[in-house]
Amino acid sequence: MENNSDLLLQVGDAIKDLKTFSEISVLNICLLSGCGIIKDSDDNTVEKIFKHSDGSLHQLFDNTVVLQCIYKKAKPVFLVPTEDNINYGIYMWDYSSFNKSIKVETQCYAILSMLKLAEKYVEIYPHLSQLLIYCSSELYEFLSSFMRDENGLFVDVKNKTKSYDDKINLKINKNNIKLANQLLVFNALLYLTKLYNSEIYKKYSKELNIERYRSEISNIYAFLSNSLDQIISLPSRQLAQYINILSDCIELDEDNERIEDYKETIALLCDELINRIKANGEVEKGENNFIPVSFYTNIRCANALINGYKSSQIVKFLDFSKKIFEYVLSYYKEDLSLFIKDYDDKISISIRDIAETLKHLEQMYIINKTEKYLDMILNFYNKAVKTSNIMQNDIIVTRDFEKLFENMNVTTKPPVLLRSVRFNNKNILQVKPSKYVNNQYALYSSYIFLNLFEALD
């Protein structure tokens, strides 16, 4: 019992570290990096918010770069100012490395992550909380205005502009319309509307006319309600994603009728997902596509079925989630604390896959209270995260923001979640983290980590 207590404390500390680093990673990407299309310098909202603060966090406010959108990929290295470049803040990244694709998922998970932090800071850093919700609304403005096709559906775009001085030139990706992305925008809007109804933000909501948020929520909801046949036919990866997003909507929405609809839809989609599980627990790619999904997509599907169980209490969803994970566990090497197939010479794990795995292990512990899941959380975290350098960390990361920025002033690299880490199966001591940030993966993973439980007992 004492050992179990010690293990719980260690896992709790690991989750706290994940949350803290995710917090700093989100602030770096969304407020400081400049990795996106920058808001017109005539906008003085940041100055207005800071003017009414107590003067703390001045380094963060002084160097905030308000973004309208967030690019897909970048090399997280601070920009060295020269006569040929524009430096909007001392923590801005070198924009020569930016991949200027703009993903719906990136926009939405930036909004969701910032709003999660805004809720956290509302008492301790109220003005930072206001800044985060303002920046979230700017991301939504861009999403709503520039990331739609001719039918009004949300789509990915790419900025073809070569420099900050050029006029914005966006190319729409019409061939990649995802129903899950429509739901994700809906989810982000639910969160924005929820926070704008809070007392601290009401004066901003009048300026932004958030009534149109409610109208947009209704429009997206109506569209998705009429698209159920297409949703059921989604590939398994997207189907699982849809279920997981709907589960988040249950937590954020206040409309009881819609919440009941979410639950019914989740149960329907989980039934479909179960039909795609093979006898050995592996998931097939689609309803008529019997090729197996990628390894970590199995874990995403297992997470979706757990969410189905939690929203419906239908036990078979939990049973089939366990069946999938039993298949996944057959590849777990206890001595290495990694999931490895025998024929894999090199094992590459993205931060997104790491987040899905830790989320699932935590859920399994909460449901079963079995010590082996605590062991796996701690060992997998130590191997895949703590010692792998996937958390780019040249400085001491601390919750003390004043000290954090002092530390950031003496490094060339911001603390952020990198895209992936590679292990050599023949020499597991060879660990190579990515040099780049995939902002979609980093923000998605941060949102998962920020929603993990610290008190598992």
Query: Residue-averaged pLDDT, rounded?
Result: 91
Helical residue percent?
A: 40-55%
List low-pLDDT spans: none
Number of strands: 14
Portion of residues in beta strands equals: 5-15%
Total of DSSP H or I helical runs spanning 4+ residues: 17
Describe the strand arrangement of the main beta sheet, using strand numbers: 2-3-4
What does the radius of gyration come to?
22 Å
Shape: globular
Amino-to-carboxy terminus distance: 12 Å
For the record, the count of structural domains works out to 3
Largest sheet: 3 strands, antiparallel
Structural class: mainly alpha
3D structure, described in words:
The mean pLDDT is 91. The two termini are 12 Å apart. Strands 2-3-4 form a three-stranded antiparallel sheet. α12 (295-312) packs antiparallel against α13 (315-329). The chain is 55% helix and 9% strand. It is mainly alpha-helical and 457 residues long. It has helices at residues 2-32, 45-51, 58-62, 104-121, 126-146, 179-196, 202-208, 211-225, 228-232, 236-252, 256-274, 295-312, 315-329, 351-368, 371-386, 401-408, 439-450, and strands at residues 73-74, 101-102, 157-159, 170-172, 284-286, 289-292, 332-333, 338-339, 346-350, 391-392, 416-417, 420-424, 431-433, 437-438. One of its GO terms (biological process) is carbohydrate metabolic process.
